[in-house]
Amino acid sequence: MLRQTPTAAVSDREPILPLRTQIADAVEAAILSGEHPPGTRLIERELVDRFGVSSIPVREALQDLEAKGLVVKIPNVGCRVVELSEHDAEAVCELRRTLEPLVFRWAAERIRPEQHVPLTEQWIRFQRAAATGDFPSFFREDIAFHRLVWQIAGNRFATRALESTIGPLFAAGLARGARSGRINLKREAQKHKPVLDAILAGDGDRASGVLLEVANSFEFHFKNSAPPVQRPARPQRRKR
Predict the structure, then answer these.
(1) Least packed by Cβ within 10 Å: which of 8, 31, 217, 225?
(2) Per-domain residue ranges of the chain
(3) Whole-prediction pTM value?
(4) pLDDT tens digits for 191-240?
(5) Which fold has domain 86-224?
(6) DSSP string covering the chain
């Protein structure tokens, strides 16, 4: 359960974020941490009580999370954390392999000098999270790194498409990875270092190619950590 107030969920960023954004960030962190696993129902009244706000910013926050693909609204039920089917996950991976390498190419070609330090600092946070072996922190910092690159690329339509698909893919990957324990977080984080170097150097070809390798690695681990297919038990024969 979330225990943070909206103000506590925000770091030292200025200016202070709107309530809807603070709440959305806190709930997203809970989703990516595995606190709200795929399929979990998010009850508006409980969020209102937890954050001590009116229903308006909570409703707006859930709308923002729905736009990111982390939450799905079901008529007469409310909101649930998105749960990808195997078919949907394959479709998301296919989209990612096509679109995100191009976005990373744009980022390398368009990055400004003042954006070098924030991107490097985010990669350091990502690497530190991997070193702790903490899956939730790893995935939060991982997606934060990707989002910063999308922002640097400067195409809001591509960012919107990636936001609505990769968020739920990472949430599902977190649940599977934590359950299987097969992912070497330090090794996975280190794979992003050549991506960082390529973007800082303005090498679009290299940034695109390495990101594709990272995406393929994630997809491999995702598929190989799938839960086993549950087969119905055979009825036992009655002894005569």
Answers:
(1) 8
(2) 19-81, 86-224
(3) 0.74
(4) 899 999 999 999 999 999 999 999 998 888 777 766 544 444 455 555 55
(5) Four Helix Bundle (Hemerythrin (Met), subunit A) (1.20.120)
(6) -----TTTT--S-SSPPPHHHHHHHHHHHHHHTTSS-TT-EE-HHHHHHHHT--HHHHHHHHHHHHHTTSEEEETTTEEEE----HHHHHHHHHHHHHHHHHHHHHHHHH--GGGHHHHHHHHHHHHHHHHHT-HHHHHHHHHHHHHHHHHHHT-HHHHHHHHHHHHHHHHHHHHHHHHH----HHHHHHTTHHHHHHHHHT-HHHHHHHHHHHHHHHHHHHHHTPPPP-PPPPPPPPP-
Burial of 183 (0-12, 13-18, 19+ CB in 10 A): buried
